Amino acid sequence: MSGPGPIGPVVKVAVVQAAPCLLDLDAGVEKAIGLIDEAGKAGAKLINFPETWLPGYPWWIWLNPPAINMQYVAPYAKNAMVAGSPQDDALRAAARRNNIQVVIGVSEKSGGSLYMAQWHYGPEGEVISRRRKLKPTHVERSVFGEGDGSDMIVSKTEIGNVGALCCWENLQPLSKYAMFSQDEEIHCAAWPAYSLYAKLSKAFSPEVSVNVNQVYAVEGQCFVLAACSTIDQAIYDMLVQNDMHAKFMEMGGGYSRIFGPNGQSFGDVLEPDQEGLLIADLDLGLISHSKTAADPAGHYARPDALALMHNKNPRRPVIGFGDATRAPEATEAKGSEPAPELRAAE
């Protein structure tokens, strides 16, 4: 006897588990486009990439003293993503060609600073949002600047309400609640490889991070697409230069997962050193079952006792007045931008 059919609507999604092309932006964009094409061919309507996958996560910050890490500063900045660049346009064109939403983790360069960002492209190649990690974690703050309250974004799209957070933002209670309060249905979690300190610290163990994603899904009654990169031989050979490095970093580290609103796992699971896509059909109708039991920002809330203050205003170091001849920079906007083809026509 066949089981009950889907409650619907049903959305096919893809989650990336793959090594970045560390410090090689153009090669990374080419690899990203190949994965987008693969997801599009499979019929996916959304693909999620790991944290700072372009041009790769700066794992060296956890391995060396700051003076040694200065050798990576210039090449990392040179290979960072810039809004409106040819690489940006190429990714937008790939989204449009495949009629797919793309959420990709990038190291974003703006002026002289870098930010841990997630860029969300729509199926027409438009920019749905560009967000930055609210608070880089620990030594990440030696490389990246901070986002602000306007970066806590859930966008209403044709496939559902889509939001995104980076790494340990997914365990920060107030950040999660800001997302839950916007009726998030599909959450794109971006992670680096779970390869750092895994042998030495339970706090950094793969099990902890996998559980963070599962708990997020249960707490927010949403689907979580957790994309995790891997450490391949090329990255390992670049970074592991001595016995101390070998204690702190290992190969593999890929633990991409898809979880549903009741904590159920969806799609196949790849081996930690295996590259590929996790593809699954998500029945968004299942969200209503979990919301009936506990909607944290709805009927299960107690705003008279506990409430979140969310400042959604962008915070910028310079606010200009009186320059009426210059329009706001497109890269500062959180909202949609036209597709590359339309922008060229303008």
Automatic annotation (TrEMBL):
Species per Swiss-Prot/TrEMBL record: Yoonia rhodophyticola
Active-site residues, Swiss-Prot/TrEMBL: 51 (proton acceptor)
Swiss-Prot/TrEMBL GO biological process terms: detoxification of nitrogen compound
Residues annotated as domain CN hydrolase: 11-284
GO molecular function, one term: nitrile hydratase activity
Protein name, entry field: Carbon-nitrogen hydrolase family protein
Pfam families linked to this entry: CN_hydrolase
InterPro entries xrefs: C-N_Hydrolase, C-N_Hydrolase_sf, Nitrilase/CN_hydratase_CS, Nitrilases_CHs
Alphabetized SUPFAM superfamilies for the sequence: Carbon-nitrogen hydrolase
Entry superkingdom: Bacteria
Region named Disordered: 318-346
UniProt-listed Gene3D superfamilies: Carbon-nitrogen hydrolase
Entry's family note: Belongs to the carbon-nitrogen hydrolase superfamily. Nitrilase family.
Swiss-Prot/TrEMBL keywords: Hydrolase
